[in-house]
Specification:
Elements (H helix, E strand, L loop, with lengths): L2 H16 L6 E5 L5 H9 L4 E4 L2 H14 L4 E4 L8 H7 L2 E5 L2 H14 L4 E7 L9 E2 L3 H11 L3 E6 L8 H14 L4 E3 L6 H6 L4 E4 L1 H4 L4
Parallel strand pairs: 1-2, 1-9, 2-3, 3-4, 4-5, 5-6, 5-7, 7-8
């Protein structure tokens, strides 16, 4: 069996031990890997794939998404406003909605090309100056702006916790905020901490190196 498939099935097995895997989506993050490297997983029937950069995703996925309508593409990296139009054209989910300016552009673009996509609001859960995201205490207001004024389909919250060995604390805070807002989906957990994230009701796990191997 292909190594990528073995790794992927092991992750699914781990998930099923703590959660009904049908409710948890694995976003296989394939940044820097070629489509030929990813194809075994696609042939295995996996639909949800993630990329960090708009340009790379466009080149890699545009043609195969036309052939295989079941494929869903997630943008998990920071989105520059000048790339928003292209992002709306190719992605089905954007996990990094992190400013009013970006919300304005994405909403306008959706309307112009008549395409509705799904969003996660990125929360700066650790209040880090170098990280993007909506401050914790402003998330509620931003959510209302996006959904009520801009008519955007926000599924839930997303965060990347600080690298300070306190992931559980941040996952717990994000999960409680998500629940208090009545949101059904929660994007958190990566290769190194996805099992922790599951304990706090994560429904979208962004896993790359654990499936595809280390990047060069």
């Amino acid at each position: 069996m292909n190594t990528i498939i073995q790794r992927f099935d092991k992750i699914k097995s781990n998930i099923s031990k703590v959660n009904n895997e049908n409710h948890v989506k694995i976003v296989a993050v394939s940044k820097t890997f070629s489509l030929s490297h990813i194809m075994p997983l696609i042939e295995h029937g996996h639909d949800h794939n993630g990329e960090n950069k708009v340009q790379e995703a466009d080149i890699k996925w545009r043609d195969i998404k036309k052939e295989r309508k079941n494929l869903k593409l997630h943008l998990i990296g920071k989105l520059q406003s000048n790339k928003a139009k292209k992002a709306v054209e190719i992605f089905d989910y954007i996990h990094s909605l992190d400013s009013q300016k970006l919300a304005d552009i994405l909403s306008k673009t959706q309307n112009e090309i008549n395409r509705s996509i799904n969003y996660f609001i990125q929360v700066n859960i650790g209040n880090e100056s170098q990280k993007s995201g909506i401050p914790y205490n402003e998330v509620d207001g931003f959510y209302n702006y996006c959904t009520k004024e801009k008519k955007m389909n926000v599924l839930g919250l997303m965060a990347i916790p600080p690298n300070d060995n306190n992931a559980d604390k941040y996952f717990k805070n994000l999960s409680e905020l998500n629940y208090s807002m009545g949101l059904k989906e929660l994007s958190m957990g990566m290769s190194s901490d996805y099992m922790n994230a599951l304990k706090y009701k994560a429904t979208y796990l962004r896993i790359g190196s654990l499936i595809f191997g280390e990047r060069t």
